[in-house]
Please model this.
Amino acid sequence: MLYINCPHCGMRSQNEFSYGGDASVKRPELNKEVSDQEWDNFVYNRKSLRGKHLELWQHISGCRQWIKVERDTVTHEIFRTFKADEEVA
Amino acid sequence: MTQAFRIENEGLINRAKKLSFKFNGKTYFGYEGDTLASALLANGVHLVGRSFKYHRPRGFFGAGVDEPYAIVQLFRNGETEPNIKATEQELFEGLEAKSVNCWPSVNFDIGAINNFLRIFLPAGFYYKTFMWPKSFWYRIYEPFIRKAAGLGVASTKHDKERYEHKYEYCDLLIAGSGPSGLAGAYAAAKNGAKVILAEDKPRFGGSLLTSDVNIGNQSGKDWAEGIIAELKTMPNVVVKNRSQIFGYYDHNMLVMSEKVSDHLPSTKKYHPNKRLWYIRAKEVLISSGSIERPIVFGNNDTPGVMLSSAAKEYLKVYGVLVGRKPLVFTNNDSGYETAIEFKKHGVDPVVLDSRKNSESEIIDEAKNLGINIKNSYVVVAAQGYKKVKSADIASISEDKKQLGKIENIQCDCICVSGFWTPTIHLASQSGNKTKFKEEIDAFVPGQSKQNEITLGAANGVFSLEETLKSSFTAGSELSKKITENDNKIAIPNVVEKKSSQHDKFWCVPLPKGKNYKRFLDFQNDVAVSDVEIALREGYRSIEHVKRYTTLGMATDQGKTSNLNGLQLVSEIENKVVPAVGHTTFRPPYTPVSIGAIVGREVGKHTKPTRKSPMHSWHEKNNAVFVDAGVWLRPRYYKRGNENLFEASKREAKNVRTNVGVCDVTTLGKIDIKGPDAAELLNRVYTNAWLKLPVGKARYGVMLREDGIVMDDGTTTRISENHYHMTTTTAQAANVLSHLEYYLQLVWPELNVNVVSTTEQWAGAAIAGPKSRDLLRKLFTNLDVSNEGLPFMGYMEGDLFGVKARIFRISFSGELAYEVNVESHYGNFMWEKIMEVGEEFNIQPYGTEALSTLRIEMGHVAGSELDGRTIPFDNALEGLVSKKKDFIGKRSLQRTAFTAEDRQRIVGVVPLDKQTSIPEGSHLVKDDKAPLPNPKLGHISASCWSVEYDNPFSLAILKDGKNMIGQKLFAMSPLKNKVIPVEIVSSHYVDPKGERVRS
Model:
């Protein structure tokens, strides 16, 4: 079970969180013309990365904040965590 | 029975307490502190079971967790449990156990014929033999195999025992209380670290209990006792025996199974049977020791053949002689230690050493004691069927290929030592990349991935002095990092005998003309010949060889067989062992009770139960409840002998003619506040929200980004920047997360706050033509006329002194209102409604009547919004704004979603107006068409229309828009029904929606 450092609450076990997928996906802006391909990329197409992956988790049984977690999909090592509005450098 | 093999003045058992027990129906005696295995051996019982495949007689091979085959069915306190290792089960008064995998008895087992048929049962025989004809597998082969195989029977009764889960955090977790574990724990504890020390056996000390060593002028055993006693007094230390750490998971989470009660005749009141510990450790010290490796020779599975370390443990810990004429077969000095113990207790062993010559302190001691030692000698085969009677032995050439003349010597047990295999399971599970250590012919942990360190024998270090030194140091260093204390510990003097180099020899060649079975894996009956076949047939990867032959599988997980299997593969393949590699070690290291894994989450505790504030009223009024997610909701209120059908019909009819009240507390409620609240709703819902006036409610549908309907409900504008959203019961949590997702990540610029208020409000839906009359009497100073409170209107009122919210919304399709009060007043509100409503013939109605009412009105619910439908499918396209953008809008342009013959909701009526259509039935054109009969749609919900007094269903039907008036068939192969039906509008009752506005 992963041990995730919630930037708001501190170290918490994985069972307090729910997974939210790839954090690098950007929703197309509202009222903007979007091609089928762009929209499919947003809704469906995901890379199954091997290695470092920036992903979303929600601290659902805690502060309810969505956070970003930089995690290795092979070793499960967590490198850094970020608040939702924090820039990932 | 006398305990003929028990000796005086040796062992750690309590001779003052004699215990009686039964094995295979026969009564024996043992002592407190025995295991079932040691007590049986004290009574001279060696035959405990039959092997898995060939049903060969099997006895005891080990003395603990490494035991591959002494597995029994245990009976305790009216319960039975399979898969119990006799070597681990502690004896208690009245214990009963039986052999497994034998019929009719362990002494006469019909399955033993497999032993003579074994030529037909080679590796992979399941895959080869039972393939044709295909239909035979289910009817003949599988039932037969099931009956003949198996390691016990699971109880079919409800388990009365309690199992607990515990979460724990510590600085240093130590797996194993041998010399390494004790030293590490002691040093860390002295530095003030929070330490958990786990030992799977009842006694602490590991190898110190049986080895002839001195630490700080005490015997190893006394030193261990002293350390444990001191650790137990320290508040920062948890010391646990009977506790097996069986799994090493991500981020230093380890799981331990503590056997709290298995050693007692019955579990004490308020105690669990087992306790599962989830331990998050900052650092882990793996001191799991090592397991002696067998040497492979002919018939090496005969009862009486066992590991030499096990024989020594039976002697030193339990005071039991495993034989009176022991033969020790060794390739290293450990066998001599066992021989010396025999000799000291007046038994004359013969030692066969595969090495040509070897000299060490231990061997000198053996020689001085006058032990008969034969160098360059091996056991070729054990003789005897149910018990070793003699051994065929021979000298062996230096290259270990040629056997000399076979001699037969009498013996009653053969104690084998093929050197030691470090127990690296936990380290490997942690992700540690293991490495092969040539000097010991075994794998040891290599590069750590997590915060773990393996020390002592588990790390391939067999010198006590070195082990203590490294473990004291590691304990100090690891704890110093955490507590910043640095208390120096003086490392005690160690006196131990030095060993000589072991021999790499591991498998005795077959003599000419003999075809003895030479077993590698005792639990799964995998012999040398099976692995040879697998390789001949082309299996190369060790993982494939494992699965094809079953080598190293099942509960044993290759504890004694792993390395010998690898040696064999490497020899045949002409590779070195590290090039072959080992199979993956997976948790659990030892079998774990399902009960322990489940813990307290059984029966009612599998999920939380949510009850509305009116629950006790429902109970008192004969409500029959149904699970709605985690909520309990009244399904109907039973009157007299009514059944579900009659009661729900009565309740629904009363709503259509008078007035009914339904508990709608379970609906999800979300409070939305902030200047951008309207903008949020406008983006979340498909319809327009910017112009909703204060004091008005609106129905909305929300989509996922893929265009599929996610949820529906009404949202009310309470004040300028304050909205009250309702969701369906099932989707409440998901909708909240959905809103939070967009507010926190996608549109953080929106100034809005959302919070769940589901539990803050109790809700009652009041529905029916007389509902307004009732409302007038509930809120006497409010104008609730059609003008004062129009459809989709909202007002606040005073319900006999309690603040209430009144919404004019309807799910039933009747004139209806929903009243909310703060949860604490829910029951008060409900009772007032019932009391005041009496004159209008009010009746409470449950979810069944609620469904009936919404189905015949064509209102969609969860069975239509099933994660596969878009607004059009539910006839909700009128709510989809063409002007503004919203979540999921772009997806609605997908080709399939705009198809002309897109599926759509319809009503379905059976032609005979009698037969109810099962939910889930498929709609087809031709009921006689050959299978697969093309499916046009499915029945999503069914009811008995109280308006028309005939069955009515909703369906999602392909090209539903153009199907009205068509005749189809509803087929339910599950219920074996074919019903001719007519397709009608989904708005079966009041299609113009006049009633809700009346």
Remarks:
- The longest helix of chain B spans residues 464-483.
